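Input:
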Amino acid sequence: MAATGENGDLKLTPLHDLHEELGARMVPFAGYTMPVQFNDGIMAEHLHTRSSAGLFDVSHMGQAFLIGPDHETTARALEALTPSNFIELGLGRQRYTVLLNDEGGIIDDIMVTRSVSEDDDGRLMLVVNAARKEIDYAHFRDRLPDNVRLEVVEERALIAVQGPQAVEVVAAHAPKVTDLAFMSASSMEFDGIDCHVGRAGYTGEDGVEMSVPAGVAEPIARALLADDRVAPIGLGARDSLRLEAGLCLYGHDIDETTSPVEGAITFCMQKRRRMEGGFPGADRIRSELDEKPGRLRVGLLLEGRAPAREGAEIALPGGPVVGMVTSGGFAPTVGAPIAMGYVPTEHADSGTQLELIVRNRRLPARVVEMPFVPNRYYRKPKT
Amino acid sequence: MTTYYSKDHEWISVEGDVATVGITNYAQEQLGDVVYVELPETGKELAQGDEAAVVESVKAASEVYAPLDGEVVEANEALADEPAKVNEDPEGAAWFMKQKVANPGQLSDLMDEAAYKAYVETL
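Output:
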């Protein structure tokens, strides 16, 4: 998204000036200069998001549309590249999926939204990881049928507001947001500005992600930050929040070698697709589903205070190394270090005792269910 | 008592032949919230530049290097239970270790407070 900085090749998001004004510590990330934290620090930002509302600039992520003549055609084109069901995805509904390579490895994990209006049905909106944009787009261009095209969206920002107060805060400017169910999206006005708002996020909390024109991103962010309940949150807390929520970070917890079965994200594979196949790497994925994969991504809770980070080896107690930590750190809400990593499936059951090797020391840990902190996604009350 | 500073952002307070070592306020600001400190064992012989301790923030682990040669005579065990002290009082209660000054000549490699302040200004 948007302009290249004066120094070097790092790109700036439309909220760059605001970040600097707010005292952000900026770091290079996926070709952008991004705020890693603001004045209060990662711990405070993390806890604020869990208790109130945090504003995240995620404009570095890629926004694009798949555009075909009708929903079924566009959905089929995406189904050919992913293991998810898009044909039956409802109007205005969102779905998390993975782009698969021919070996069933994950090219990227992406969020897909079907247009809410029948008038422009046949369009699926994609949000992809910043570091994977060019790879994903090239893959789509290479594989899409002639009647479905990729349209990359430029000049738009993406602002996430996450936390138990997030929707209430946004509703003061965009009252329609309260009508949204979890994982659904709609166009709506925010203080009179046309925005596209989805009720989703990557923190385990209720909240929204808003796609807004780049030129109005800053006034929208300022309007949200004017509410005392909202604090700006950097990438540091975004990472610790998603780790506690048990969510994967592409390039760390999942990559081109891991399948969605190994990565324990089979929730993105709906029943019809599992039965029918017809996606890249279907043979591998089918056999992993039937016979269990050789390895699985698991959550790990450490017993002591020392964190184990990405790259730490996972060993059987007093025994050999059997796996590797792919994400790890101190979990502010849990109040203890947590990690995720891959272990052989026979050692992946909850309660299994393992050791994580940090600086030649073996730290006791056990396999736990994820998320580490209960999800608090919005569920519509039954009427 | 004289206090010295290293380019690795440690403070070294020397009294007689014992140096108390900690990290500076600048260092703790850069690290952010400290969640764990791993200290050397008492009796460990350190050479200048050896990895002496590890301080972990939410985001990352950072090494603390021995500013001088000498045996560790005491480690601040209070930091094990209260690592956040490093953020609250880095140049006081949150000292990391006390070290015998085996080679006083090495003190001349270090900066005084004015020189350290000037050094931080350049970062």
